[in-house]
Amino acid sequence: MIYRLKQTEKAAPLFAGWQETMIWSCLQGVMGAVFTDLTDQPASAAALLGDFCFLAGEPNRELVQYGPKGRDFLIMVPGSRGWAELIERCHGLAAKKVVRYAFKKEPGVFDRTRLQAAVDGLPKGYDLQRMDETLFWRCKEIKWCRDWVSQYENYSMYQRYGLGAVILEDGDPVSGASSYSGYRGGIEIEIDTREDHRRQGLAFVCGAKLILECRRRGWYPSWDAQNPWSASLARKLGYRPGHEYTAYEIVKGGT
């Protein structure tokens, strides 16, 4: 049996040492959910938020199979080699093994003068704005930038646990940095640029703006990179590399 844990603090010992803000979001009850093998003293747990599933404790086949149910795509992060082997056995060719890049969480590392200079260097023809209610609902309807706001049920929730900076051209979003998820104390950054506006430094500008806004609010802007391009941008913004780790992209009908 798999249970959705209401008293999420009971799973906290299983995730001890994990520096993943999405896990913190789940444990704090801000967003996402925690699933376990038992409700009282769980030995295995899965923290599930958006497209991510973090597995901790004793490897459990039911949890590995439960996470992707009803989903076309899921990123599973194993807490041990045992979890990784179980993912490979359960999902076979549908599980694509990938490398992701974690960065150190160091609130004082950012050079505010350099970041402000990046914001001030926004190319002509573009407009940089904070994510407001109009942009929030608009981005929910645009496929390429939907993840800037997709984990927030409404704008009120976003105001409380989210933050974003959007670059517009002629009123249309073309690049942005926003919170994929939020927790008490910060956000997990989601950043992207529309394909026809890439390689112009726009991601650097809106990333710098979002970091500055987070620091003004006393929040930490956490960054986890999916690929070398994202990792390079993170370093340019001032983040210091932490470690590489293995994840599995589970694709429905994957081969």
**Overall strand count:** 13
Task: Evaluate the radius of gyration.
Answer: 19 Å
Topology as H/E string?
EHEEEHEHEHEHHEEEHEEHE
Distance between the termini: 29 Å
Integer average pLDDT = 96
Query: Largest beta sheet: what is the strand line-up?
Result: 1-2-3-4-5-13-6-12
Helix content: 25-40%
Short description:
This protein is an alpha+beta fold and 255 residues long.
Structure description:
- With 255 residues, the protein is of the alpha+beta class.
- 29% of the residues lie in helices and 31% in strands.
- The chain is built from eight helices and 13 strands.
- The chain has helices at residues 21-28, 61-66, 81-91, 112-120, 133-140, 155-161, 202-217, 228-237; strands at 3-4, 33-36, 44-49, 52-57, 73-78, 95-103, 127-130, 164-169, 172-183, 186-193, 220-222, 224-225, 241-251.
- The strands form two sheets. The protein has an eight-stranded mixed β-sheet, sandwiched between helices. The protein has a five-stranded mixed β-sheet with strand order 7-8-9-10-11.
- α7 links the parallel β10 and β11.
- It is globular and about 55 Å long.
- The two termini are 29 Å apart.
- The mean pLDDT is 96.
